[in-house]
């Protein structure tokens, strides 16, 4: 079935899509941002699968811990060699749900929020691959990448443009608690995002358009 020609979708997708009837605000103070991260079985979107999704909301440049989401997925594909990175066992104590349920819950949580991630193209692609397996279109949300936002600050005077989350966390003195868990990385990225926006605001008034990532660079892996 062609990914782009299906016209009949399940109710949860229709509900999600309805949130995009109105144009997104551009004033940063009026936007709900959802910072998210995925832990996966590997780095190949065509073969690997999502193990967990973690999010935290930001509104008016304030991290809203109460506005968060976390889920763990059943590991139909298990790679023992990646456990040392994410720490997620095939069994374990975490309650796990199937991929479809995880995607439904994720869409219900994010609605039409502006998504934020570090190296966002990978996380967006992993979500889009899951949507494709459900015969659904790609995410509709605007996506920001903290890596690209940092480059807009001109704080680094070298020619380097690809900074890791570890590098930027160290630069901005952000504690790396729960690193390599989806929720932990989402919170670290949220702290980074708030710091970057605060820095950019010192130079001039900025809107969503000033911090958008190039469209062609998001979710095309």
TrEMBL record:
Record domain Exonuclease: where: 32-202
GO CC annotations, alphabetized: cytosol
Coiled coil: none
CDD domains referenced in this protein's UniProt entry, alphabetically: DEDDh
Organism domain of life: Bacteria
GO molecular function annotations of the record: 3'-5' exonuclease activity; DNA binding; DNA-directed DNA polymerase activity
Biological process terms in GO annotation: DNA replication proofreading
Name this polypeptide is given: DNA polymerase-3 subunit epsilon
InterPro entries noted in UniProt: DnaQ, Ribonucl_H, RNaseH-like_sf, RNaseH_sf
Summary of the function given for this chain in its UniProt record: DNA polymerase III is a complex, multichain enzyme responsible for most of the replicative synthesis in bacteria. The epsilon subunit contain the editing function and is a proofreading 3'-5' exonuclease.
Subunit note: DNA polymerase III contains a core (composed of alpha, epsilon and theta chains) that associates with a tau subunit. This core dimerizes to form the POLIII' complex. PolIII' associates with the gamma complex (composed of gamma, delta, delta', psi and chi chains) and with the beta chain to form the complete DNA polymerase III complex.
